[in-house]
Design goal:
Structural class: alpha/beta
Strand order of the largest sheet: 3-2-1-4-5-7-11
Radius of gyration: 22 Å
Distance between the termini: 66 Å
Strand content: 15-25%
Largest sheet: 7 strands, parallel
Oligomer: single chain
Number of helices: 9
Number of strands: 13
Length: 298
Amino acid sequence: MPGSPLRGSPHSRALYANQLLGQTLIYQRRRLERIGIKTISILGSGWLGLPLAEKFILAGHNVKASTTSENRLSVLSSLRIEPFIFDIGQPSSNVHNFLQANILIVNIPSKDIDGFSKLIKKIECSEIGRILFVSSTSVYENKNKILSESEVEESTPNTLLVLESLFMNSNKFKTTIVRFGGLIGYSRHPGRFFNSNKIVSNPDSKVNLIHRDDCINIIEQIVAQEIWGEVFNCCADTHPTKREFYTQAAKQLGVPAPNFQKAGDSSFKIISNQKIKRMLNYEFLHPDLMEIKFEAST
């Protein structure tokens, strides 16, 4: 077989074997995806990313997840999650393997524009076709009204909006943005958000919050229903004032209520969740913030 890579040098034979292995893995992932089993990579495996990964594992998907800590690798492995070390500011050499997936979920708090720009270039050279980017309702300014997904001030400098645009503007993959309200539930007990020495400003403004259970369910439904190329606001149905909500949360925990500012800015924003409910036919697990029973022990 003249010219066959099998007759070449050991190096060329190794390259050829790696190419065959890569093609085989791609074929296997595509075959599994056709029967509903996806390979999902999750960038960030903390408070939200870890239980999200566990949910996908239970649903039968193959899951990879990143961490910045060597100590967490064994934790991820014990949950049948393929672990990777990854730091957005210092991309590792194994990022290629991490990006061998059908879907990437970006769920880290970093606002490193340069780091994300470099990551996107690597994604564009990978087989990933769908991305879910976890953003925040902090992209909206207080306008004293109900705000939908289109009502952002793009002229106002906002790093999150820049990051959203970096992903949305690529023509190599489709991105869905989820803008979560303030995250609550489990170890994030709102009764602990303010200590007795801190004064809560603007106490009569409305809160826009979401329980972790709903965050996970929403992401899972976007993946299951294959809703890509969209932007969604995600927060509970109700919007009590800071004074109402945090006073009740402190009472649940059995601690004194926070100190509220007596006078100050009265501006507010109410984030609309109508689009996510309509497009996903989604019903919130925790629609009424004042009805949530938080766990004091976690």
